[in-house]
Amino acid sequence: MTWSDLREVAVIECLTTGHNVKLDRILWLAVVLLDLQSDDDSGPAVFEALLDPRIPVPAEATLIHGVTAVHVAGQRHFGQIAQEVRDLIGDRPVVGFNVQYAAGFLDAEMGRHGEKTFYGATTHDIQAVLRDAWGYRPTLSNAVTRLGIRREEGSRAVSDAVATARLARILASMPLDTLANLPGDRWVDEDGDHGAAPATRSQLATIRHLGGDPGRVKSTRQGDKMIDALRRGMREKTSAMGENSAESTGASIPRIEGVWLVAVVLAAIAAWFFL
């Protein structure tokens, strides 16, 4: 089944205590239900749940997604929503950005609480499609920026799930060869310009020649700014070197004059003796 054949799907996203499906737990789950063939712009149906994992929340995990033990204290645990989630997703194909990660955790939680799992369900991985099309493995943030997708306010899990759902709509409506040929430099630049003009080869060559890092610029505006900064830095460095040279030369003059004075005095003394 291709993306253009998909209709009703369940997009899943989860935040977890770690990366081990056997030892770690889901902290925040978001499920978006949508019809990829529908023109309805009212927005997809979204389910979300902040969950008590019943295990400690590591500091390393909090650094990634911001969820702490304080946030989940007193919340429901997964066993209390397992049946609801199972009924919600039903037999729909499961879609995700790196779907194996989210589906793996969801399946483990289902099995842990005696519910029918999603093992063997049809899954569709958006990250894998974009990797094949673009030649590198994009992050979700990179993918939505490159495709000009608007992010929603709200929880990290829901924001990611809705963004992933919008990516799914694009994959279902855009031929993959068109996706592959999408300009790689269509980014949001530092000033918030969507679809900013990409940096030219001439700019990148100049930046490299001036000792800068061309990999740090994407738009023409960023390229011009870096070139100007590099050239200004070189002028300031050259000016400083000139001033130091002048100071060094000026300081050497008295020493040279002193040497000649000593030589004249010695010559006069020698002449006096011989006379």
The H/E string reads EEEHHHEHEHHHHHH
Biggest sheet details = 5 strands, mixed
Question: Helix count?
Answer: 10
Helices and strands: which structural class?
alpha/beta
Strand content: 5-15%
Sheet with the most strands: spatial strand order: 3-2-1-4-5
Strand and helix layout:
Layout: E1 8-16, E2 26-35, E3 45-50, H1 59-65, H2 69-72, H3 82-89, E4 94-96, H4 99-112, E5 123-125, H5 126-134, H6 140-146, H7 156-173, H8 176-180, H9 201-209, H10 220-274
Explain how this protein is built.
- This protein has 275 residues and is of the alpha/beta class.
- Helix content is 49%, strand content 11%.
- It has a five-stranded mixed beta sheet, with helices on both faces.
- Helix 4 links the parallel strand 4 (94-96) and strand 5.
- Helix 9 (201-209) runs parallel beside helix 10 (220-274).
- The chain is elongated and about 110 Å long.
- The N and C termini lie far apart (117 Å).
